[in-house]
Amino acid sequence: MSSQGIRYTAVTFAIAALVAAVGLAAAGGAHPDGVMAGAGIGALVQVAAFWVFAVWLSPDRAWHGYGLGLLARLAAFGAVAFLVIPGAGLPFAATLFSLVGVFWLSTMVEPVFLKSRTSNPTQR
Predict the structure, then answer these.
(1) The pTM is what?
(2) Closest CA to 44 of 65, 90, 13
(3) Residue 92 above 70 pLDDT?
(4) What is the phi-psi region of residue 120: left when phi exceeds 0, alpha when psi lies from -120 to 50, beta otherwise?
């Protein structure tokens, strides 16, 4: 499973780079600190949740780890919105849009990495 974790980590950081590039282009150079912070935090939370819940704690029950990872992402979103952004003085929209972009895209590809470990042999 650790090889899947490494591949997932690489894909997630590629997604974060893509979100940051699109966010910087869409913002027209405004608020680069918020875009980069949101993409970076999103990638770190996403990778940490995958490793903790899907690789280390419940490798034989991947979908339980997936659900716990969703809860961790929700908690991270709240913490960033209510604690990190005001504390660091980051722009709300740029930070949260890039954070959610990374969360959404990497969550959409996560089942691809979990599907190969399912206990149901009839699933493809």
Answers:
(1) 0.87
(2) 13
(3) yes
(4) beta
